[in-house]
Amino acid sequence: MTNVSDTGTVLIVDDEPRNLRLLRDNLSGWGFEIAAATNGLRAIQLAKEVAPDLILLDVKMEGIDGFETCRRLKADPVTSDIPVIFMTASTEMNADKVKGLNLGAVEFLLKPFQSEELLARVRVQTKLRQLMKSLAAQVEERVAAEAALQKLTHELERRVAARTAELERALEELTQAQAQMATVIGAAQTVAGEVVLDRVLDRLLRITLEHAGAERCVLVLAREGGLFVEASITRDRPDAVRLGLATPVEADAQLAVTVVQGVARTKESVFIQDTRGEPGLAGDRYLGARGPRSILCMAMMHQGELTGVLYVEREAVPHPYTPTQLETLRLLASQAAVAVKVALLYAALRRSNEQLETEVARQTEELRRTNERLTLELTERERAELARAALQEEIIRVQKERLAELSTPLIPITERIMVMPLIGTIDASRAQQALEAALNAVHGNRTDVVIIDVTGVTIIDSAVATTLMATAAALRLLGATTVITGLRPELAQTLVSLEIDLSTVVTRGTLRSGIDYALRQVR
């Protein structure tokens, strides 16, 4: 299993030299390789050259700011998968953070930051980056290598067994073929170990150019119902593979278009030793300008489907490719088809993952806005509930006051005489209300006589009787006379049994006699 280092290469981007020095000293002290840039354009260039494991990117910079720098990095396939941590001292942290995450950043650090926090986040992202690269490379390498090796081994064994009878005659040829086959298998394994399309095409063309002894190799891929020239290499510049051409075959004037289209249509490889002997190519503009050529055009097939066409060209020579060489190159084309197919699937998967991440970020933002709306609605609902509760309490309070007024009514007979009729059961609370109502009436109206009529009272206990006597005493202190009327025999007996002193109050049998008494008093 591949070991993942605790360190890696970190690209620091900040237009403040002091910040660069501080970050460089901290991270290099922890074992990280450091690359530094003071502006966004230099950072983009360094990211392509150095391929760092992590980019620490300042938001506010002269020229293009951190957001634009991140957008350009993520738009470039070469640098799009490099994780970015934004650094900012802005007070608008939340807005910057949302914008940065939408652009593809993985973290956000607020300046000034703690060294331990910086180290922890940098270590997490660099380890994650190295683990992802290592895991993807191991999985793809093992699966592709095992499949390619197994297929090549079975094919080789079958062909060797079929030619056992011809071993003596073809011993020298077979020995050479085995040596070349071993080389091609190693080359095929190398190609199969790659999952990035540009790297697969680069290695494939270099290997084909070397083993075919060709002057020129062109790779054509079948995409979207058409044929497109994707990469090419020439003998005079073997280290310069041209990638990402994406030129339609019909528009490319640097290969025999008729041959390529014929192979793509029939899905059968074609070897032309000398183009001068092919009547169908006599009018080909490209071949007419180049002179006699030797062309090997191989269909790259995967599970019965055309992946592309491998076009090999050299000058016409007296000694053509041997059958073994042709077979070896066809095997190489077959393995190339698998490697290219895997690389195309990997590229599609990565694009799908990027789209998924973008959609997740969008859905997360929508969920956040929805939560904010729900929170606001709940807050408004709580406020409405509190207002309703307050209104209900006020209504209850007013009702209680109204009931209190109704339970102890005061009826003026004259300006100086008031009657308080009491009805029903009198408890301590109601007796206290009667006391307060009588005192307030005498004080506010200058009343001389207060008649408390108990004709409608059913029960009076000692506490109530005591409160009534206290009411009479308090009224006397305010200058008013208390007259209790309507005492029935059973109530009078209750008062006597309770030993209540009635000497300080005037009692009358009926309300009418009490009113007559009061009128005489006020005259």
TrEMBL record:
Domain STAS: 407-522
Pfam families per UniProt: GAF (PF01590), Response_reg (PF00072), STAS (PF01740)
SMART domains per the UniProt record, alphabetical: GAF, REC
InterPro entries linked: Bact_StressResp_Reg (IPR051932), CheY-like_superfamily (IPR011006), GAF (IPR003018), GAF-like_dom_sf (IPR029016), Sig_transdc_resp-reg_receiver (IPR001789), STAS_dom (IPR002645), STAS_dom_sf (IPR036513)
SUPFAM superfamilies reported for this sequence: CheY-like, GAF domain-like, SpoIIaa-like
Response regulatory domain boundaries: 9-126
Keywords for this protein: Coiled coil, Kinase, Phosphoprotein, Transferase
Coiled-coil region list: 135-187, 346-401
Modified residues (4-aspartylphosphate): 58
Record-given protein name: Response regulator
